[in-house]
Each structure stands twice: as structure tokens, then as C-alpha cells.
Amino acid sequence: MGLDIKFGVSTWLWTSPFNSDTLSLFPKIKRMGYDFVEIPVEDPSLIDVEKVNEALLKNDLKAMICGAFGPSRDFTNDDPVYHQTSFDYIHACVKVASALGSESVSGPMYSSVGKARLVSPDQKRIEWDRAVVNIRKACVMAEDFGVELAIEPLNRFESDLVNTAEDVMKLIKDIDHPSAKVILDGFHMNIEERDIEKAIISVGDKLVHLQVSENYRGTPGTGETNWGAYKRGLTAINYNKTVSIESFTPDNKELAGAVCMWRPLVPSQDGFAEEGLQFLRKWSQEK
């Protein structure tokens, strides 16, 4: 049985940050056969929603919004100033999502990416509780716009708080708000999960988006990823939403440094997107 899903690609595969110039990618993304474009909101002020909506309509694409949670966006920081910065940023992302017809804003919004330390159980509890309280408040804000917040686990090298499907479901339970959902990213899952299929099943109907690449962040189908486990897990939960390719280009030095991409993974970023989609379409329909 095939999966009834839509396919997208992140503009991070080619460039960063997203701005009006990035719209020139939309015709190419559509020609490749994608259904939607994943828009990373690094700086909300760079996004002209009127122009983006026009480009989406012209190219018959839908939008998916994801956040970028750098050092200043940290709900677990001791300083409440960081919390307010995070609220302001998520509010801006939610407004963009609402204006562009995206049902969710996704990302590791509990703390800043790269905050990975060995802390005491007491300190971890303090930071966990801060994340719970603050994301619950953000969920209330997002609900007013009809937008959900999809929380993403990261691997242990990028976060010490939420690494697995089990972790994120515990966080969702503690937040206890209907707008709190989950996004899973295969790159991080390939590092952290003992059983991909069981991890997906454990998230169930909380899963609103799946990001994929290979275990080495390259083109889907060219590495060691257990794609059969992903297919079985998604089939078991009757997943019918979106799957997108998320990877990066080493040409953008700042972004490449943030994700530790020190060399080109493919000869061509266009080839990455085209071949990746071909593989995913075949994978989604295999019995």
C-alpha cells in the first residue's frame, strides 16, 4: 500500500536566509515536481508575505514554515529576556505561517540549537519546566492564529534536552495543549532512535511533518537509512501529511558552519533535489 503524502523541499538546500530573492527558486522547485516549499524563517523582517503568496500561487505551491532557533532564542535560559525574544520570534513566525496558509510552525523551539552540555538532574528539571511553561504560552498564542507548533527533537550533539520521540512525547504531555504537535527529522532519528518504526508509531497522530535526508545528510536513497522502517511506521499511523527534504549547502558559510557541513555532499544541489524526490516518490508507493 502506498502512502498518500505530499512532498516538499527546504530552500536551505540552496540558500540562506530566506528573502525575496529566494522566490526565484519556486519555478524550479515546481518543475521538479514538488507540492510545497519549506520556508525557513531566520529573520521574519526579510519575508514579504504578499510577494511570497504571489509566488506560491503563480507556481501552484503550498508553504510549510520552520523556525531557526539560534543562541538568542532560548526558552530555557536563566535570563527571561531570552524568553521574550523567543516569544516575539515565534509570534512573528506564526503570523507568517497564518498569512501563507501553513498549518504549523516547526522547529526545536524549547531551547537554542547547539545547547548541549552535561548538567545536573536538578538543572535539567529547571530547564525542562521552563520549556514546558513557555511553549504552552506560545501554543495559546499560536492557537489564536489557527496555527500549531510542531516540536522537533534534535540529536545529542545539538541539544541536551529533547533527543528522541520518547522525549518529545513527554514534553507534549507536560505542555498539555492541543496546539502542541511533533515534527520528526530523519537525520536526527538515525542518530538517536533504536527503532525508527516504533518511534514513529509512538508519536502517532501528533506527527504533522517529517523531514528527511540520508544518514550523512545527503540525497535520500544514497546512504544507510532504513527507509523500510520509516515506511512501516508511517503506514501504521495512517500518515497522510507532508514529507520534505531538508539539507544544506556548504556555499553559505554561516549556515554550513552552524550545521557542521565542511564539504559538498553532492555535485549539484539541483541534482540533490531532483534525485531525492524521484527516490521518495518510488519509496512512498512501494509495497
Describe the structure.
This protein has 287 residues and is α/β, with parallel strands linked by helices. The protein has a single domain, classed as Alpha-Beta Barrel (TIM Barrel), CATH 3.20.20.150. Helix 4 packs across helix 5.
Which percent range fits the helix content?
40-55%
Order of strands in the sheet with the most strands?
1-2-3-4-5-6-7-8
CATH superfamily label: Divalent-metal-dependent TIM barrel enzymes
Q: What is the average per-residue confidence, as pLDDT, rounded to a whole number? A: 97
Terminal-residue CA separation: 5 Å
Cα Rg: 18 Å
Number of strands: 8
The H/E string reads EHEHEHEHEHEHHEHEHH
- CATH architecture identity: Alpha-Beta Barrel
From the 3D structure, determine the CATH topology: TIM Barrel
Main sheet specs: 8 strands, parallel, barrel
How many helices? The count is 10
Share of β-strand residues: 5-15%
Which structural category do the helix and sheet elements fall into? alpha/beta
| Number of self-contained structural domains | 1
CATH class: Alpha Beta
**Multimer state:** single chain
Spans of 5+ residues with little confidence (pLDDT < 50)?
Answer: none
Overall geometric form:
globular
Outline:
The protein has 287 residues and is of the alpha/beta class. Helices cover 42% and strands 14% of the residues. It is globular, with a radius of gyration of 18 Å.
Name a few traits of the molecule.
287 residues; alpha/beta; TIM Barrel; eight-stranded parallel β-barrel; 10 helices; 8 strands; 14% strand; globular
